[in-house]
Specification:
48% of the residues lie in helices and 17% in strands. The protein has 260 residues and is an alpha/beta fold. It folds into two domains: 6-200, 2-enoyl-CoA Hydratase, Chain A, domain 1 (Alpha-Beta Complex); 204-250, Orthogonal Bundle (Lyase 2-enoyl-coa Hydratase, Chain  A, domain 2). It binds octanoyl-coenzyme A. Octanoyl-coenzyme A (CO8) is lined by residues 24-25, 27, 64-69, 79, 82-83, 86, 107, 109-111, 133-134, 137, 142-143.
Length: 260
């Protein structure tokens, strides 16, 4: 499928979605949101895709947020509808039955920061700048920023970022627990590829079950969360990958998982 605002490349079981409006720092406009919806559906339904990477084109930005030029003249109802759409898209990414890695190559602001937070693992360039600057526009985050941020780093620190609209550097974001790893800028995609290949070699059903156990259990009481984990654990015992994984360990050889 030919896209105008993103690029989608699928190779060796790894789908790379690149936000590609570098002149506007990869700001998410309506067209990009529509194309992201299509790309996410495509990678979700393609059984050859085992891992998804999301990154930004150019040297400066992952995504500098929603496209502010489209806010001019936008009605309250339109804005509400748009947030609902982008929220659904980010939930879809968060719940995708495959690991999603964010490769944050620069600014991740507003809707860009919110997209980053919907991903499973975040590797960032040392040049990354992260924040929720919406208050500077007289608005607030609308794609999960007030919710995922406080769940990730705690209410107090989330409020500081959301209320000041300040950007923070990669080191500070890592200290807060927003990033998994900070990497030298020119090494970012090499390290992300290594991680993606590592994940692509695992059993796809086990990865799906593991992600689902964490996601579904996160906002519920411990007892229900661990009960759900137990059922997913049991489900793994019905897979060919479990037979292969256990046999490979006992036979002292690397496993060859088939995602079945
Ligand atoms: N939207 C549109 N254009 C943008 C955006 C943006 N978010 N960010 C940057 N650009 C454009 C600039 O206008 C500029 O265009 P031009 O060359 O035509 O003048 C170009 O990208 C390069 O930007 P700068 O010259 O400003 O580059 P700097 O390095 O000087 O500054 C910054 C980089 C600090 C990132 C600066 O561009 C900036 O502050 N950008 C805005 C960041 C921001 O406020 N983001 C939040 C947007 S609101 C949001 O994300 C809400 C999401 C909720 C879901 C949607 C609900 C409707």
């Amino acid at each position: 499928m030919a896209f105008q605002t993103i690029e989608l490349q699928i190779e060796g079981g790894i789908a790379t979605i690149m936000l590609s409006r570098p002149k506007a720092l990869n700001a998410l406009n309506f067209a990009m949101v529509g194309e992201l919806e299509q790309a996410v559906q495509q990678v979700r339904d393609d059984p050859t895709v085992r891992v998804v990477v999301i990154t930004g084109a150019g040297e400066k930005a992952f995504a500098a947020g929603a496209d502010i030029t489209e806010f001019k003249g936008m009605s309250a109802v339109d804005a509400w509808m748009f947030t609902q759409r982008i929220q659904r898209l980010y939930l879809e990414i968060e719940r995708l039955a495959k690991p999603v890695i964010a490769a944050v190559n620069g600014f991740a602001l507003g809707g860009g920061c919110e997209l980053m937070m919907a991903c499973d693992i975040v590797y960032a360039s040392e040049r990354a700048k992260i924040g929720q600057p919406e208050v500077n526009l007289g608005i607030i985050p609308g794609a999960g920023g007030t919710q995922r941020l406080s769940r990730l780093i705690g209410k107090q620190r989330a409020k500081e970022l959301v209320l000041t609209g300040d950007m923070i550097g990669a080191e500070e974001a890592w200290n807060l627990g927003l990033l998994n790893k900070v990497i030298a800028h020119d090494q970012l995609m090499t390290e992300v590829k290594k991680l993606a290949e590592k994940l692509a070699a695992k059993g796809a059903v086990a990865l799906k079950a593991a992600k689902e156990a964490v996601e579904e259990g996160y906002d519920i009481e411990l007892e229900r969360g661990i009960a759900n984990e137990g059922k997913l654990f049991g489900l793994c015992f019905g897979t060919e990958d479990k037979v292969e994984g256990v046999n490979a360990f006992l036979e002292k050889r690397p496993p060859q998982f088939r995602g079945k």
